Amino acid sequence: MASVWGEYLQIPVVTRAYTTACVLTTAAVQLEIITPFQLYFNPDLILRNYQVWRLITNFLFFGPVGFNFLFNMIFLYRYCRMLEEGSFRGRTADFVFMFLFGGLLMTIFGTFVSLVFLGQAFTIMLVYVWSRRNPNVRMNFFGLLNFQAPFLPWVLMGFSLLLGNSIIVDLLGIAVGHVYFFLEDVFPNQPGGGRWLKTPSIIKMLFDTPEEDANYNPLPEDRPGGFAWGEGQRLGG
Known about the structure:
Rhomboid-like fold, 3-stranded antiparallel sheet, transmembrane helix, DER1, Rhomboid-like_sf, mainly alpha, globular
């Protein structure tokens, strides 16, 4: 038990907090402590009845326990962790700010497309940002498709379509992920460009730590999936 707890504590803080919140929320629904009707995104209830918790809880519920829930949890955990241990290594405040920025955009867009739960779209956003920052990683999806990482969000969207799910959720995640990637990685490097996304100092004060744990053992970022649908290797490696 102690080793399991130790492994749990080795998960980086943002990934650990978010995935734990998602699992606990789903468990509470399964145990009928709460219902999805208390969690879903509803602008009218938020503005008129001041049920502001819905701004957060709609990102935490991925449906009842089943294949779709497990699929989303696996991708959420893997790609959230690889971002936090990869390009956001030592930049916890910037990672939290990406969560806030992405969540805000999705909330705004979700109002117009009538989505009530945005957790899956948020997962796709994380996958999109990781895939664009690791363009040379070759992926294998269920042993059927071989492609490079930037195509992963689109492959997942196709998979959702095959399962009969709405692709609006995937498109929203891709769109928000692209906005973040463009503003953070592309536009600052363009002639006349600049950095529009700056993490507020109060977030840096709360989340950034001056030192890293020397014993911390991150997941290797060149193994993006860890499962049959996500294993890959870098080109030239």
